[in-house]
Amino acid sequence: MSGTSIWNKLFTAIRGGASEVGEAIVDQQALRILDQEIRDADAALAGARQELAAIMAKHSLATRRVAEHDAKIKDLEAKALAALKASREDLATEVAQLIANLTNERDAEHRQAGEFGAYVEKMRKDVAKAEARIRSLRQQVDMARARESVQKAQVSASIASGGANGKLETAVGTLNRLKARQDQRAAELEAQEQLAEASTGNDLERRLKEAGIVPDAGSANAVLERLRKQAAE
């Protein structure tokens, strides 16, 4: 395998790892990124509305100019007819030229008004679609945020439960250690008592009594025997 191939594979692996890290970061910041994207979309939509308003104004002005041209043309046509009736061909021809010029201007304005009108209708539909999509996205983000809050609460509850269980286990362990220390202390005290009895001779007396060599005056049998003797006297 060539050195170049090895380096290519290494760089590919590094890029893949970086991509995974990047995706993890994006996932962690998903809601924040979505909020920013919605703000960007809102800003773009505001710009589109401004552009739509400007085009609507141009459409309105173009439509108004068409109406004004129509009114002027109608007035000039009446004057041209009057000139013809007065046998003023020269004036009628001059007015006819004005009518032709205004008609061309009116037709151009009419075409422009039509283009503006079509663009306004298209932009209105596009703006409405964008508003609907942003509204839907905002609702989805709100639901995602609600789910995120619920899941965080569930995780916190799970952690708290695990912590409580851990604390209970710790408490049980502490009690067991305490009991073990108490048992050890009791055994030590008993051993010390036995040593003390041995040093005073009490231990020997106790062992003689336990062996039955020396009668135990405080035992039930000894008491019963003493009472029998009293009864026989």
From TrEMBL:
Coiled coil is among the record's keywords: yes
Keyword Coiled coil among UniProt keywords: yes
Annotated Pfam families: PspA_IM30
Residues forming coiled coils: 31-147, 172-199
Origin: domain of life: Bacteria
InterPro entries, per the entry: PspA_VIPP1 (IPR007157)
Keywords: Coiled coil
Family: Belongs to the PspA/Vipp/IM30 family.
Stated name of the protein: Phage shock protein A, PspA
Organism: Azotobacter chroococcum NCIMB 8003
Source species taxonomy: Bacteria, Pseudomonadati, Pseudomonadota, Gammaproteobacteria, Pseudomonadales
